[in-house]
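Hey, I'm writing a tutorial for new members on how sequence and structure tokens pair up, and I'd like a real worked example in the thread rather than a made-up one. If someone can provide the structure for the chain below, I'll link this post from the tutorial.
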Amino acid sequence: MSRYAMTALLMVALMTTVFCTTALAAQTGRDLEISAAVTEALIRENPFENTHIDVKTFDGVVVLGGHVDEFYKMQRVIEITRGIEGVKSVDNRIRIWARGE
């Protein structure tokens, strides 16, 4: 491998490491506290079976992912999330899956 190609490969590897570290740092501190509070509230509420919800927070914006099997369950998860102190907004990416999918 040429010296130029090796240098380019090393630069890409270093930039990837820096970007990954920056993204991880964005989820520390208050954002982690918010994510934990949302998760705890959802567990405490334990509203539903057949759900899987992922919670991540970036600068107070909570990103909800995962799936539920009915629309009203998704609405309730969003409602619970909005009630948590520090939540600026909710980015809902929850999918509704029919049973058996």
